[in-house]
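Researcher: Sequence of Polysaccharide deacetylase follows. Predict its structure.
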Amino acid sequence: MDMSIWQPIVDRLDRLRAAGRRADFWLRDDDAVAPTGALDRLVELADRFSVPITLAVIPAHTSGELSHYLASRDDISIAVHGWTHQNHAPPAEKRQELGGHRPREVVLDELDKGYSRLSALHPSSFVPLLVPPWNRIDPGLLAGLPDIGFTALSVFGAERSSSNPDGAKTMKTGSIASAFPRPGLSLVNTHVDVMDWHGTRGCRDHLEIIHDIVRRLDEMNLDEETVGILTHHLVHDESVWQFLSRLFELTAVHPACRWRRGGDLTAR
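Model: Prediction complete. Tokens:
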């Protein structure tokens, strides 16, 4: 592996240290339901560098087995990843579980069940954070989330409005920022995805991921925003594991980087 490609991240962090500043990073890993070898590997890797994990768990498919596996850990936060992670959009649309294709009351009731189930299974590590499957949610649902107990929402993309909204019916990436700030609900996004979903479905080119991290460091508001890294442990190839190992190695000990727990972010 060419270690020189990592120098831009080190340079940015060194500049922050010289200025007396610090960037918050966080790791969101999606689609957890049960203990697996892949989850073991993620947990062991994060442990090695003391990096906390926020697991987005699918409530309808999980059980006490995962709860028992994580019971003694205080460095893993549990977020609500929809209800069943089932697509309800027609073939011509992007996949959505929390879209506008079903009655609002039905979707909110499922999210309420998911919130109750995970908070009961993981009483000490549960955080009131909703992670919509496929990072998509209908805007009409947002007002009902605080009534369930959610205090934060996490999708993929910038927290501030962009000039290229994804569309009126579904809020994703920059477009969701137009609905914030809003009472009782904060936006805690991920910004860098390690997976090449539209190509190899393995790890993206390491240099491209590094460029995304550097761009986020250059653009973010250090006082209010984070660098959110998005992973999916169940589908990682060896290149993903290598990337994460090197990223954690470089950042976890750097005084200008702080890896945050999910609860730290929802409490802000």
